[in-house]
């Protein structure tokens, strides 16, 4: 269980955070982004060999009392946290914890066009989605997505999510010199 929670993280944007890694054993992502800090890996469309909801909740309940001045609990992964098979159940379990800090998820946005994912994410206090570029050519070069993922579907999913979501939504754009740093890409 100890490898599920990774220590406090400090961020200017979100303050003190306790991160929960939903894929502690290996990178499991549907993107293989050009700029990813993790070692490159074959893309996947679902996460396997993940901790159970019970394990994650137990580790979180043990870790929370030892942490001081936490602003957020961050759901993340060695890859994409929305690929976690029991995300909805996990979110519900975390939300039941008394006196918890806000819940944040860091997602690449790839699954936001899925209605069930939008419903789950709508329960979370802060949702951060990545959107590095919106042109298909640029998207393929930077995010190197799993087969079948199209940027147009991600953008449409984000629009639908914005209409139903009442929490704090953050869209992150990582600018890569020579790829998405043009006026054309910024305008798009």
List the helices and strands and how they pair.
Layout (H helix, E strand, L loop, with lengths): L4 E7 L3 E7 L31 H11 L8 E5 L10 H9 L6 E6 L7 H7 L4 E5 L5 H8 L7 H14 L3 E5 L10 H5 L1
Parallel strand pairs: 2-3, 3-4, 4-5, 5-6
Antiparallel strand pairs: 1-2
Helix pairs in contact: 1-2
Describe the structure.
With 188 residues, the protein is α/β, with parallel strands linked by helices. The protein is built from 6 helices and 6 strands, in the order E-E-H-E-H-E-H-E-H-H-E-H. It has helices spanning 53-63, 87-95, 115-121, 136-143, 151-164, 183-187, and strands at residues 5-11, 15-21, 72-76, 102-107, 126-130, 168-172. Strands 1-2-3-4-5-6 form a 6-stranded mixed beta sheet. Helix 1 runs parallel beside helix 2. It is globular, with a radius of gyration of 16 Å.
């Amino acid at each position: 269980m100890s490898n599920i929670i990774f220590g406090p993280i400090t961020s200017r944007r979100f303050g003190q955070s306790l991160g929960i890694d939903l894929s502690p054993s290996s990178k499991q992502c549907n993107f293989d982004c050009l700029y990813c800090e993790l070692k490159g890996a074959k893309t996947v469309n679902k996460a396997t060999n993940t901790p159970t909801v019970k394990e994650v909740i137990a580790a979180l309940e043990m870790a929370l009392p030892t942490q001081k001045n936490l602003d957020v609990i961050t759901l993340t992964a060695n890859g994409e946290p929305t690929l976690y098979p029991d995300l909805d159940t996990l979110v519900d379990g975390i939300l039941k914890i008394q006196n918890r800090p806000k819940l944040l998820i860091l997602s690449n946005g790839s699954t936001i066009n899925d209605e069930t994912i939008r419903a789950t994410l709508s329960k979370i206090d802060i949702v951060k989605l990545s959107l590095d570029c919106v042109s298909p050519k640029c998207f393929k070069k930077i995010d190197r997505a799993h087969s079948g993922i199209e940027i147009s579907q991600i953008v449409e999913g984000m629009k639908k999510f914005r209409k139903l979501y009442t929490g704090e939504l953050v869209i992150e754009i990582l600018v890569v010199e020579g790829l998405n740093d043009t006026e054309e890409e910024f305008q798009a």
